[in-house]
Automatic annotation (TrEMBL):
PANTHER family: LONG-CHAIN-FATTY-ACID--COA LIGASE. Pfam families: AMP-binding, AMP-binding_C. Keywords: Ligase, Membrane, Transmembrane, Transmembrane helix. Belongs to the ATP-dependent AMP-binding enzyme family. This is Long-chain-fatty-acid--CoA ligase. The keyword Transmembrane helix applies. The chain crosses the membrane at residues 12-32. The lineage of its organism: Bacteria, Bacillati, Bacillota, Bacilli, Bacillales. It comes from the Bacteria. Residues 7-177 form the AMP-dependent synthetase/ligase domain. InterPro entries: AMP-bd_C (IPR025110), AMP-bd_C_sf (IPR045851), AMP-dep_synth/lig_dom (IPR000873), ATP-dep_AMP-bd_enzyme (IPR050237).
Length: 324
């Protein structure tokens, strides 16, 4: 069983400190507990592997794209990564496939957490030791209350039902600076409406389904991008995948997948289509695939789905995009 030891841990500081995630999980935590920090200015797979082998970090907070990039480096097998004991992934959904592979390579634990800037930032996390549930963001942190609210009337829902996640606790913001209207929309009686769709199981573990704003409505069906992405990540040729709803003249929206392939790997649209149909209902299967060398990301590695959607809408408005 792993438990952080005050004054003895070595934290890999790849997350930027100007973002609340890096500031709290690397900088503030290390200062409070007397941990050594290894500061990395930017992600470079080869350099990072060398640093891990030489500096022997024990804790590695990151984002899914960071772990994905490391796992797909062609020389990863040449380096000793066994010093890594605990990793907390945040900022974006962690594919189960990535979690399993990273734990196999390092021998450490990689768990998913959840939060947002408005909650300073963490509200949920899985246990590094003890019970954890794959695909779940874990349980609420101490002194944090959570509810799943109906999208119709904002009343609390029972376990197993999907609604909007609301959180309440000492880490929740007082409001947006000089933005009272926006504050009133998300803060109600001390509860922060996160904008994320989620559900809780009978044991109290929470699952994030997707952002409310990211739901794809195609031909009257609701499609959650995360579910489709999880399937695409299972394909052996796929390194990164993001799914979005793009305008369609008949269905309203249609499912489009943006794919980054692993180095020296190839796959066709037809092959991906056949693969997806094995695991997804027909209406959830992507109708369009776009292969890219890279995907747009934030400073902490979160894929910018909305920027991809904005480009698609602009194409349609300009008559540049033909959608079947």
């Amino acid at each position: 069983m792993y438990k952080a030891k005050k004054g003895e841990e070595v934290v890999l500081g790849l997350l930027p400190f100007f973002h609340v995630y890096g500031m709290t999980t690397v900088l503030i935590l290390s200062v409070m507990q007397g941990f050594k920090m290894i500061l990395i200015p930017r992600f470079d797979g080869g350099s990072l592997l060398k640093t891990i082998e030489k500096q022997r970090p024990t804790m590695f907070p990151g984002a899914p794209t960071i772990y994905i990039g490391l796992l797909n480096h062609p020389k990863i097998g040449r380096y000793d990564l066994s010093s890594i004991e605990a990793c907390i992934s945040g900022s974006a959904p962690l594919p189960v496939e990535v979690q399993q592979k990273f734990e196999e390579v390092t021998g450490g634990k990689l768990v998913e957490g959840y939060g947002l800037s408005e909650s300073s930032p963490v509200t949920h996390a899985n246990f590094v030791w003890g019970k954890r549930v794959k695909g779940s963001v874990g349980v609420p942190w101490p002194d944090t209350d959570c509810r799943i609210l109906s999208l119709k009337d904002e009343k609390p829902l029972p376990p197993g039902e999907v609604g909007e996640l609301a959180v309440k606790g000492p880490q929740v913001m007082k409001g947006y600076w000089n933005r009272p209207e926006e504050t009133a929309e998300v803060l109600k009686d001390g509860w922060l409406l996160t904008g994320d769709l989620a559900y809780m199981n009978e044991e109290g573990f929470f699952y994030i389904v997707d952002r409310k704003k990211d739901i794809i409505i195609a031909g009257g069906y609701n499609i959650y991008p995360r579910e489709v992405e999880e399937v695409l990540y299972e394909h052996p040729a796929v390194q990164e995948a993001v799914v979005a709803g793009v305008p369609h003249p008949y269905r309203g929206e249609t499912v489009k997948a943006y794919i980054v392939l692993k180095e020296n790997m190839t796959v066709t649209e037809k092959e991906l289509d056949r693969f997806a149909r094995k695991y997804l209902a027909a209406y959830k299967v992507p109708r369009i695939y776009e292969f890219r060398d890279e995907l747009p990301k934030t400073a902490v590695g979160k894929i910018l789905r909305r920027s991809l959607v904005a480009v698609e809408k602009e194409k349609v408005e300009n008559g540049d995009e033909k959608i079947s």
